[in-house]
Amino acid sequence: MKKILVAILMMASFCAEGKAQLIAVKTNALMDVAMVPNLGLELATSSSTSLCLNGFASWKVYGMKAETYGIVPEFRYWLSGSTFNKFFIGAGATLAHYDIVAREIRYNGSSYGFGLNFGYDLWLSRHFTVEFHGGVGMYHYAHSRTSIYDKLPDLPKVNSRGWTVLPYQIGVSFVYIIK
């Protein structure tokens, strides 16, 4: 994860204009309410583009075993011509792994996909903004489904895979802009 972040930051610095960089640190409050801690880093690469990398991980959600973790890199184009200001369109990917127990069934697998994101940044002060965003994405999943009890022979190990359309990056993020 650390190597991916360093590679993205280096790539962004090559694409950037020759002025001071804007960097923002963010967290999605809707994911926090769902007990999925997350943290994002966004780097302005020009006056109207930015690269964003979000990461998330959880171990227990409302008493249910739900180990999930993943990263979400995204490229954003700011329609106002100024990064971290007003409307943006984003395109990104999601890479995730999950091990979830729900209703005595264990789902263990991984997912990857891509999506489009639309949003609005509302300035609160020089360094703080609130970002409202949401979109739609296409995801591929592959997991095994097993019973958590050995005494239930009726449920054989089932491997599932396929594509599905799901919401992509829905949220309200609190953003701190570092200059």
Question: Order of SSEs, N→C?
Answer: HEHEEEEEEE
Distance between the termini: 24 Å
Q: In which order are the strands of the major sheet placed?
A: 1-2-3-4-5-6-7-8
**What's the shape?**
elongated
What's the total helix number? 2
* Structural category: mainly beta
Percent of residues in beta strands: over 45%
Task: Name the average pLDDT.
Answer: 83
Give the tally of β-strands.
8
User: pLDDT under 50 segments (min length 5)?
Assistant: none
Please describe the biggest sheet, giving its number of strands, its sense, and whether it closes into a barrel.
8 strands, antiparallel, barrel
What gyration radius follows from the Cα positions, in whole Å? 19 Å
Question: Could you estimate the helical fraction of the residues in percent?
Answer: 10-25%
Structural features, described:
By secondary structure, the chain is mainly β. It contains two helices and eight strands; from the N terminus they run αβαβββββββ. A hairpin with a 2-residue loop joins strand 5 and strand 6 (105-123). The longest helix is centred in the N-terminal third of the chain and has 14 residues, at 2-15. It is elongated and about 55 Å long. The two termini are 24 Å apart. The mean pLDDT is 83.
